[in-house]
Design brief:
heterodimer; A: 370 residues; 0% strand; disordered N terminus; B: 643 residues; alpha+beta; 14 helices; 30 strands; 28% helix
């Protein structure tokens, strides 16, 4: 009973909001409201609608003001009821998928004690397993109109689990809003969801947000953003990632190694002394791993730079590089070797020794001899 | 029965009159008697006449600075073992006259050729003012505490005090006023029942504050009490003298000139003067005459108002118009401000490089000072320009601990040394250097500088105030004060500056943290800077905006209005309505609801309905908004009364 009533409250409120006019529905919350009611069973809406005035209204209007204010609020409520009626007719013809969501949504909207919140979290998780657009819509609607942090986290996780194939026009505003939530964990999840949006559509809005998230106060949020930008090989993020490295953020090396080029390598060598050696080494190591990093002369310089740095990490990176670029090595090694050979020019034969590899071997020998 | 007539004989009358005269002369009240009548014009008038007729003290024409230097001190403890030295520096000749070892324990007193000070724990030393040679050493009586010294006409007066000993059944403190001649011989010593404060002397008379409410004037030669003033509505905290004039502290903010009106004994009826320098500065007109520890050089010497009063144009009138030229000089640590005593407007400001200024004083034309490192200086009173500079060669480990200036009456001629014809830097620059000085120990002077910025016209001053609001590392009081000043200024042309400041957001990459957002929001609302709405909306939804600032941003957006405002308020309300982290401080959400209702009409009302009625909304917020809706619904429903 409580569940059903709660669901009803959500719908009525959503309808009220939906009536709020264009100003309310420009983006973010309001635009999702109209969708919410379609997912709720009509009976619940009717019941809740009657209770809206009966319970909450009366409670708020104590000491004789009740009758008067009830009268004054009825305009809104009548409007809401009218719209509810329309929606009810519409949803009577709703598709079975939407009807199937109703009990899940009812759970999602449960309120009261911790058990209700647990049920709401479970409901959000369940929505994550449903791949229908209606489920995504429902999640976005709930997020738009405000949830407790725990339920919101579950809802964001559910969105991530749904792996949206395309950037929903409604998805971005909601995720953007949560990417700036005061709760860092919610921000992290929102950025994770943003990062999953494919490159094909909406990228122009996603990437700036990911770059912006590199400046977040939470290290976890920065980590997710940096990782996403690295995975995307987002060259436009390089200046921000360099700043991140200068701030000694552990998320920077891997990401920068994935997006950086020859200029990055040069910039890194100038950072020695300002940034911990291990971070520079890690970044340079990441650069060397990439088959598309070059030309070969730059690789040689990078190897030399690594060789000048103290510590055992140097040897590990160079040893890995030597293994990786071994003729006839693994797939990755093959790619790197082939690219290196191509960079080396016409005269370089298929099995010609790559200067960077030779340099790496030389450094390893010298260091181990010592 | 006829009445008996008594007809005195001439001889009888003579006897009675003679006996009466003898009786009254025997009953003349001693000084400090509890039976002495106070606020009597007939006793005060002769005192004032003597003051006005007193000749200007004879002077050699040479100004002197008596400087005490020694190891660094913290409280009563020396932090080193450097020699303690008394330096005598001739300001007119610009040279050191003498340096003599001395453990100085009080400010210096100079009268004619005598220099007096306390030395060590229990001695008073009288020296030759030109050579520093000791003339006499007077031991303070056992168990007595020195409460102050004064000098006039070659005589030295000092007050000592004995604490009541409850074991002996004593109930009140006792004090003694003692006079010495220039060779240290005792002229008189008068006991007083109760607490007597530090003396001041001029015109052959000595005045002391007595029992916190009275001012007693004694004859310098005999110690006889001449007159007494009892202030009815305030304490008398100190007495100070100038040639031909006594001043006495009235309450903790002002002082009065001793004149005929003093017998009226109420602040509004006497010749009362109070410098009004603004709310953010606490003015010390003189050190507390009742506190023996303040007879020594202390922080007071580095934080006080330097003031003087011109000689009355009509001595008979006894009225003093104001402080000299309506200005005074505020000394605080390394800084001097020439301020108008009505309002506190700063005419010039001087910031001394690095070293604290340990003591300062006014001559007719100059502000004299000595810095901790031995630098002696003088500034022109009118322009603030440096007119004199020299440096004492201190001994190893020494620093200046205090100094007293003998300005040789009104005609001090300073040596031509170290003057600087360069114009002072603009007041704005000096204020900036004061406010952003890394030394955080002088917060009050920084607050004063902020206040002063408010009185400077122009956008540059407003920009400086905004810099203070958003600066990193400044004490929060300064930012708050700067905000208040900005609000009071209401500079409409600061909108672009405000906008730029509000656009600053937290950025880990640039190590940037926005500061003073709440203050900026208040200022934006106060100056109706509608251009700032988008930036305020950004800050409202910025996760790094400090929670306490949210309510100010909400209030500003509500005041400024516009579509962007309503949108931001709605987003905040919906996003956090169910967030328990707002449970401890719902004010931003409450205000956002109120703002939305005000700004967004029917749409806002519907949003509020949703938030109020949706069960997941925080209960306290739900209740508040429910009540708000109900209240406004009642109002909306009431028929409009026709006027």
């Amino acid at each position: 009973m409580q569940t059903r009533r709660a669901a009803g409250w959500g719908v009525v409120g959503a309808v009220l909001l939906g009536l709020g006019g264009g100003g309310l529905c420009t983006d973010g919350f309001g635009v999702r409201i109209a969708h919410a009611e379609e997912t709720i069973e009509p009976s619940a809406r009717g019941e809740a609608g009657s209770k809206l005035v009966g319970n909450k209204g009366a409670a708020a209007l104590k000491a004789g003001a009740g009758r008067e204010s009830t009268a004054t609020t009825t305009k809104t409520e009548k409007g809401a009821a009218k719209d509810l009626g329309k929606e009810k007719k519409g949803t009577d013809k709703a598709d079975p998928a939407a009807d199937a969501l109703s009990p899940v949504l009812a759970d999602l909207r449960r309120t009261g004690g911790p058990s209700d919140e647990r049920a709401a979290v479970a409901a959000a998780q369940k929505l994550g397993t449903m791949t229908s657009p209606a489920a995504t819509d429902a999640l976005l609607t709930e997020l738009s109109t405000g949830l407790s942090p725990n339920v919101a986290m579950a809802a964001l996780d559910a969105l991530i689990a749904q792996k949206p194939a395309a950037a929903d026009t409604q998805l971005l505003p909601v995720l953007s809003l949560y990417a700036r939530h005061r709760n860092a964990e919610l921000r992290r999840r929102a950025v994770t969801a943003l990062a999953m949006l494919p490159d094909t559509t909406g990228t122009s809005q996603v990437v700036p947000q990911l770059i912006s998230a590199l400046g977040d106060a939470s290290a976890e949020v920065r980590q997710v953003a940096a990782q996403a930008l690295g995975t995307r090989h987002e060259k436009s993020a390089e200046p921000a990632l360099i700043k991140l490295l200068l701030r000694k953020d552990p998320a920077a090396p891997a990401a920068l190694g994935q997006v950086g080029g020859a200029d990055t390598a040069r910039a890194l060598s100038e950072m020695i002394g300002n940034v911990p050696d291990r971070m520079i080494l890690e970044t340079l190591g990441e650069l060397l791993k990439r088959p598309d990093f070059g030309p070969e002369q730059v690789r040689v310089q990078v190897v030399k730079t690594i060789g000048k740095m103290p510590g055992s990490q140097t040897l590990d990176i160079l040893s890995d590089y030597v293994k990786q670029t071994a003729p006839g090595g693994g797939q990755a090694a093959g790619k790197v070797a082939a690219k290196a050979a191509k960079d080396a020019g016409k005269d370089a034969g298929k099995d010609a020794p790559r200067p960077s590899r030779v340099e790496a071997q030389k450094i390893i020998e010298q260091r181990t001899a010592k | 029965m006829s009445p008996v007539k008594w007809e005195p004989k001439a001889s009888t009358i003579a006897v009675v009159l003679g006996a009466g005269a003898l009786f009254f002369s025997a009953c003349a009240e001693p000084a400090f008697s509890v039976h002495t009548l106070d606020n009597e014009l007939k006793t005060l008038q002769p005192v004032l006449t003597r003051l006005r007729q007193s000749p200007q003290a004879a002077s050699s024409g040479h100004g002197m600075a008596y400087v005490f230097a020694g190891p660094e001190r913290r409280g009563d403890k020396d932090l080193g073992s450097a020699e303690k030295t008394l330096y005598g520096y001739d300001l007119t000749d610009g040279r050191l006259v003498f340096a003599t070892p001395s453990d100085v324990r009080s400010r210096f007193v100079v009268t004619q050729s005598v220099l007096a000070h306390r030395e060590g724990a229990g001695d008073l030393v009288l020296r030759d003012a030109r050579s520093g040679a000791a003339r006499a050493r007077v031991a303070l009586s056992e168990g007595e505490t020195l409460a102050g010294i004064a000098g006039d006409e070659g005589r030295i007066y000092y007050v000592t005090r004995v604490q009541a000993d409850s074991k002996k059944g004593e109930t009140g403190n006792r004090s003694f006023v003692t006079a010495l001649d220039e060779n240290g011989a005792r002229l008189w010593r008068i006991p007083a029942p109760g607490t007597v404060g530090s003396p001041a002397a001029t015109g052959g008379m000595v005045a002391v504050p007595f029992r916190y409410q009275e001012l007693v004037v004694l004859d310098g030669r005999s110690g006889k009490e001449l007159s007494r003033i009892r202030q009815k509505d305030e304490q008398i905290g100190f007495v100070r003298s100038a040639p031909g004039c006594f001043f006495y502290g009235v309450g903790d903010k002002g002082m009065a000139v001793l004149d005929e009106s003093s017998v009226k004994a109420e602040k509004k009826k006497i010749a009362y003067l109070e410098p009004k320098l603004g709310e953010r500065v606490r003015v010390f007109l003189s050190w507390d005459g009742y506190r023996p520890e303040q007879t020594q050089f202390s922080a007071f010497d580095r934080n006080r108002l330097l003031w003087d009063v011109p000689a009355a144009a009509d001595p008979g009138a006894g009225k003093v118009a104001d402080f000299t030229d309506g200005k005074a000089v505020l000394h605080s640590y390394r800084f001097f401000f020439n301020v108008e005593t009505t309002g506190g407007r700063v005419r010039w400001a001087y910031s001394h490089p690095r070293q604290n200024i340990m003591s300062s004083d006014l001559s007719r034309d100059a502000v004299l000072f000595v810095a901790q490192d031995g630098e002696l200086g003088a500034l022109d009173r009118k322009s603030g320009a440096r007119v004199f500079s020299d440096r004492l060669e201190l001994k190893p480990g020494q620093q200046v601990l205090g100094a007293t200036f003998d300005t040789a009456g009104s005609a001090l001629q300073l040596a031509s040394r170290g003057g600087d014809s360069k114009a002072l830097p603009p007041v704005l620059d000096v204020l900036h250097s004061i406010i952003f000085d890394k030394d955080s120990s002088f917060i009050s002077v920084k607050l004063f500088a902020v206040q002063t910025l408010g009185s400077l016209p122009g956008k540059d001053a407003a920009a400086e105030l905004l810099r203070i609001v958003t600066a990193e590392g400044l004490p929060s009081q300064l930012a708050k004060a700067a905000g208040e000043v900005l609000i009071a200024r209401r500079d409409a042309d600061t909108a672009d500056l405000l906008l730029a400041a509000l656009k600053q957001s937290y950025d880990f990459l640039d190590d940037r943290r926005p500061r003073g957002i709440d203050i900026l929001a208040k200022v934006a609302a106060a100056v109706a800077a509608k251009e700032t709405v988008p930036a305020l909306a950004e800050r409202l939804l910025d996760p790094n905006t400090p929670a306490p600032a949210l309510k100010e941003i909400v209030a500003a957006l509500t005041d400024l209005g516009g579509v962007g405002s309503a949108q931001a308020l709605r987003d905040l309300l919906l996003l956090y309505r169910a967030d328990a982290s707002f449970g401890n401080d719902l004010e931003p959400l409450r205000r956002a609801g109120e703002g939305l209702l005000k700004l967004d009409g029917e749409a806002g009302r519907r949003t509020l309905f949703y938030v109020a009625l949706e069960p997941r909304t925080l209960p306290a917020l739900s209740n508040h908004l429910g009540k708000l809706l109900a209240d406004t619904a009642v109002r909306r429903n009431q028929p409009t009364k026709k006027r």
